[in-house]
Each structure stands twice: as structure tokens, then as C-alpha cells.
Task: structure prediction
Amino acid sequence: MTNQLDKKSQAWSALFSEPMSELVKRYTSSVFFDKRLWQADIAGSLAHAEMLGHQGIISAQDLADIQRGMAQIHSEIDSGAFEWKLDLEDVHLNIEARLTQLVGIAGKRLHTGRSRNDQVATDVRLWLRGEIDLIIELLQALQKAMVDAAADHTETILPGFTHLQVAQPVSFAHHLLAYVEMFARDAERMADVRRRTNRLPLGSAALAGTGYPLDRERVARTLGMVDADGVAQVCHNSLDAVSDRDFAMEFAAAASICMVHVSRLSEELILWMSQNFGFIQLADRFTTGSSIMPQKKNPDVPELARGKTGRVVGHLMGLITLMKGQPLAYNKDNQEDKEPLFDTVDTLKDTLRIFAEMMGGITVNASAMQAAARRGYATATDLADYLVKKGLPFRDAHEVVAHAVKTAQGLGLDLADVPLETLQTFNPAVQADVFECLSLQGSLAARNMLGGTAPQRVLAEIARHRARLA
Ligand code: ARG
Result:
């Protein structure tokens, strides 16, 4: 008996009077990228078959045959022996055709009460769920590396910037922990996307559901599509289940935001590494030389991460645009969700992996950081706060300090080096104790409130992160 699926190279069914052209075959097939879903596809099929057996829709023998065939297919694909055929369009038809080749009639019964529409939606969700778990782990590792780096630098002072102008001194640890906060939220966002991704479309069939007495909750439980209380998570509307890809858009949005955080960090690493800052060095294995300028060490890794952010944001735009004109329910447009999704996952995972390693190995030039903080009158706000403590209204203090900074600039001195008598000409309230607050260390220590840069606060934050990430 000839297998209908094998005949697809000729035509889909008796309804078609001519075969697909070679060009159309190539245009419509997805197997060379969606074969990546094979494990999810087999897991979904096994869960479906087990339920069909349990419900008496297929026999115990059919189920056993399907399980045996799928085990063999699993090892064939794993070992690279499986022959993927363009003629069989996608991962689903390739695996199903091989199953029927291996076990005969039981293979043909697998698709009972199922369509590729609910099948593919299930596969993508299962696959993405696993990738989200890996991404969350990578985000934890990156946070740990940055917290460890921060622990060495609670007293290392660099200028904090606003508008890229020297603003106030901060510790390098405080600066690194700002990114730890961002990556912590990225991990939260991923966990949230996972919750909505982990719901079962299977059982929706082509679009309207099916007349077979399926037990969808059973399939959901088999596939681990359950909430924190173990309650099965099933998509409640068949039209929605087969057609919407909002979980993919949401994931791409979370990935884009995460890449934007990486990109901001990259921009800083690149600036800090330039000779004009000289704040840090990256380990040599993360830099490249120039083919013409022998003195160069280029920050290619952060530059590429900044560039790849554009690529990931592009995938988000692609996915959103893919969805926008689609009427209910499934349309073949959705086949185009895979490549952007796969590339987003690959790019994000590689980037996080490399950054965890790179951030653990940066060398800090503390004296260059400190000198830069001194150059920009970073403690001017501290002088104003000092005058406020002496009774001046803040706005007046602000004005007094502006005059002091102007004078210091004229003298070519840092505020801390302007003689006391000169400072007193701006306001008689200034006393010798002013120099404590004009030092960078004094400025940091003063910001001893929740969220501030005082070493004591930052140490407490490091402890909090370590407990959270343990
Ligand atoms: N390869 C298809 C996809 O990725 C599978 C679903 C095809 N369904 C269909 N009715 N043509 O979306």
C-alpha cells in the first residue's frame, strides 16, 4: 500500500491534477529550518497518541507501535541518520511519513483529531519554553558574574554622568549593580512570558476543535503544561489557539529589551575602553587587533552585541508585522514566525553567555576613574547640600556653588583644592569641615539611603543579590 504522504512530491491528494513546481516546493517548505523542532514534535505526538489510546480512540497495539516507531525516529534524528525530505514540506510531515514507513497503519492513525495547525502551535510553544528556561539560567549567571565584580569595587569611584557630562561620583560597584537590576527584570519578564507560552493548543485541530472525545487536560499534564499548582493549562478557544503567536511576539519583546540592556552596557564598555577614558580593559580573548594598526585592541564583542541588538529588535518588528493583517484562524503566514524566533534565541543566548564570561574578566583602572571624577566638579552638589545644612535654601546654595565652580574653573583647580578663604567669599557659612564633603569618598558616604551609592548600602545590595541568586 502506498503512503499518501510519500506521494506528496506528485500531488497532495486525488484532488490535485498536477504536482507542485520545484520553485513553489522550495518556497513553501520549511523543513530545513523547522526540523529544529523535532524533539518537541515527537513529544507532542507521543502525548497525543497516549491520550488517544487512553480514550479508546486508537488501540493499545496502535499506541505501542507509535511509541516504538517514535523511539526509533528519535535515535535516527539524534544520530544524524534521519533523511529529511524537502518534498515532505516540514518537520511534522517528515516525521509522520517516517513513522508510517516504520510501523504502518498505526502511523496513519496518529493524526486522528489533530491538524498541523494545532501541532505546530504546540511544538513552537514547547520548544520556546525550554529555551526560555535556558535563557533564565544564563541571565542568572550573568548577574552573578556582575555581582562578583561589583564586590571588588564598592570603594572604586568613577564619575557618574548625566548627558554624558560629569555629574556626581558613584562607585563602580553601584554602576555594575544598575545592570544587575536590569538583568533581574529581564529574567522576571522571561518567566512571565513562559507562563503564557506554556499553554496547550493541541486538540483545537484545524481551527474549530474536533468531534473525537479528546482529553486535552491529560495531554497538557503529560507535556508539563501546568501552572504552579499543577493545574493543566489549555488554550480555551480553538481559533485563537491555532492562529495567534502573541507568545512569540512577547518573547521577542522581552528578548529585545534584554538586548537593549546589553547594548547600553556595551556602549559603556566601549567608551570606558577608549584611550580618552582609560577606565577598563577587557581580557584579550574578547578583543581583536587591527590588520593595519599594530597598537590597536578593539572591543569587537561589545560592538557586535550593540549591533546584534538591532537584529533582535528587527525580529520583533518582523513578528509583529507578520501577525497584523491575518484574519482568524491559521494562515500560512505563520510559518514565517520560526526563523526570526530561532535567530532571536540563538543571538540572545550567545550574547548572554559571552557577557557573563567577559564581565567576570575586566581589569579596572581605579586611578583613571578617580581622576576623571575629580576633573568634572562632581562634588558640586555636595557643597550645595553642605550649605543647606548650614541653613541656606537649596536654590540659593545652588547659585552660590555655581559661582564657586566658575571661580575654581578660572583657577584651574578642583573644588577640594580651592583655599578656604576663597570659598568663604561666596558664603561666610563655609567652614573648614567643608573639605570632608568635597572629597569623592565623602560624597559617596553621604548617599547612605536605600538605592544610594554609599559603600555600606552597596554592600547590603550585594548581599541581597547574592541571597536572591543563590
Ligand atoms: N509548516 C507549517 C507552519 O509552520 C505547519 C502548519 C501547516 N498547516 C497548514 N495548514 N498548511 O506553520
Summary: The longest strand covers residues 165-171.
